[in-house]
Amino acid sequence: MSDRTSAAVPGAGPRRFLRAALARIPLPLRGLRPRLLTSFVLVAMASSLGTGALAFREARTGVLQQSQDSVINRFRASVDAVAPAIPLAPDQSDLQFAVDQVRYANRSSDWRIMAAYGGHRAYAPNPGFVELSPEMLRSVRDRRVAVFQRMNVDGRPRLVVGMPVTYTSDEGLETMLSGLVMYLEVPQTTEEGYVEAMVRGIERATLVALCLAVVLALLAASGVLRPVRALRRATRRMAAGHLDVRLDVSGSDELADLSQSFNETAAELERTVRELRRLEAQGRRFVADVSHELRTPLAAMSAVTDVLDLEGEGETGEALRLISEGTNRLSGLVNDLMEISRFDAGAAELNRDEIDLAESVRRTVASRWRQEQVETRLPGPGELRARVDPRRLDVVTANLIGNALRHGEPPVRLTMGVRVDGAGTTWAVIEVTDNGPGIAEEDMPHIFERFYKASTSRARSESSGLGLAITAENVRLHGGRIRAANLPSGGAVFTVELPLHRDDTDTAADTGAGGGSTR
């Protein structure tokens, strides 16, 4: 026994998830217009947010960089101005003098200054300074340039600058650290205000872009949906049988190509259907003409063979009997073909008369079969009356019983009753059952098709395959229904339902091409 392994299809999971998500969307929202609108809005939102985020980042960087450079330059100038007055080993008073001078030079700004040398600290305007990070302390100790760090103190942005004070060696060749470091802490509320103003501006621009995207989406959807709706109307008209429908083609885009392809398809379909109808009409006319032409000589042949049957003896009599049977079958086939031709041509008519259905069926059975061949269960005289065509009811009954006797096993049972459906319509129900093998499931859909024979071994049987077709057409002509099924205990059952209490001016439902079969 071999082991089988299944490999996962790449992308199958996301596709299933997408299909499941789309299935949850309400049906009205799955149309082309909502999808176009959603696509435009999503694209506009992504574009606006992406552009806004990029613009915000660049503008914010520019604002903060400009403010930072300005502060550092001013701080450097102030420190450079006071540095010459500071001794190489300043004490606490020297540090306080330095921070006071720097603070005084920038008294209009909200600066906090701190000077650090060794273990000494000096502050201006008052003690208190933001806690410096170890990284900044290390950078100021090791580098000879100003360093800065943006910090958030109590929810407010602040810029902290550390500037080491250097001096030049006696030879003037090297810049050396003096150990003195000046620190600056300055709030950036103004810059933060500028940033918030930019955010509000980007939000307004995004809202405007979304509104514009909705308008553009509606315009685009209208332009796209107009030919699509025209195509939908045209296909519906074509489905209704109007094969001459055509679309107006304008432009040279894909929708124009689609409209042109539809017109070409419609034209080819119209030509094909016209040709098929012509061939079908020609075939029906041919069958009708041939049947009509054969009817007269066959009638004469039947009369002659009947006379010869009475006189023939021995081998001659047997030959005459075979000729007589073949002639009779051929005459029946011609009559069936002529009946089918009348149905196809729409020339079949009902000659209704109010009759006792049970009595009519009883006469049909008595005139054709022996009592032990057909069991009947019929209503009493006068209990079930209806306006039907007696001749066609006789054909329906005779064909169903004859089919059951040929392909089932006697006795054949015929029952008749009345049924009222949920809509309040009263139906006369005729059921014909047999004890045969029943109908194969694969043959059930074709049982009423013309010339269909369920068994290929009976392809040359005495049955023409038109009996059930004519039966179905006669039932439909009365506005009734017919169906076939198998009994659980074995055998087939054919059920005919004819509506009662119909006015004789009623027309039958569908008298189009039916189907016929023998089992």
TrEMBL record:
InterPro entries assigned: BphY/WalK/GraS-like, HAMP_dom, HATPase_C_sf, HATPase_dom, His_kinase_dom, HisK_dim/P_dom, HisK_dim/P_sf, Sig_transdc_His_kin-like_C
Enzyme Commission numbers on file: 2.7.13.3
> What is a GO molecular function of this protein?
phosphorelay response regulator activity
Q: HAMP domain spans which residues?
A: 222-274
The UniProt entry, under CDD domains, shows: HAMP, HATPase, HisKA
**Which keywords appear in this protein's UniProt record, sorted alphabetically?**
ATP-binding, Kinase, Membrane, Nucleotide-binding, Phosphoprotein, Transferase, Transmembrane, Transmembrane helix, Two-component regulatory system
Which biological process annotations from GO are given for this protein?
osmosensory signaling via phosphorelay pathway
* Record domain Histidine kinase: where: 289-502
**Source organism's superkingdom?**
Bacteria
Reaction(s) this enzyme catalyzes, per UniProt: ATP + protein L-histidine = ADP + protein N-phospho-L-histidine
- What is the annotated signal peptide range for this record? none
Mention any Pfam family matching this sequence. Answer: HisKA
How is this protein annotated for GO cellular component? plasma membrane
Under which main EC class is this enzyme filed? transferase
Cellular localisation: Cell membrane
Sorted alphabetically, which PANTHER family does this protein's record hold? Answer: SENSOR HISTIDINE KINASE GLRK, TWO-COMPONENT HISTIDINE KINASE
Q: What is this protein called?
A: Sensor-like histidine kinase SenX3
Which species is the source of this protein?
A: Streptomyces griseoviridis
Please spell out the taxonomic lineage of the organism that makes this protein. Answer: Bacteria, Bacillati, Actinomycetota, Actinomycetes, Kitasatosporales
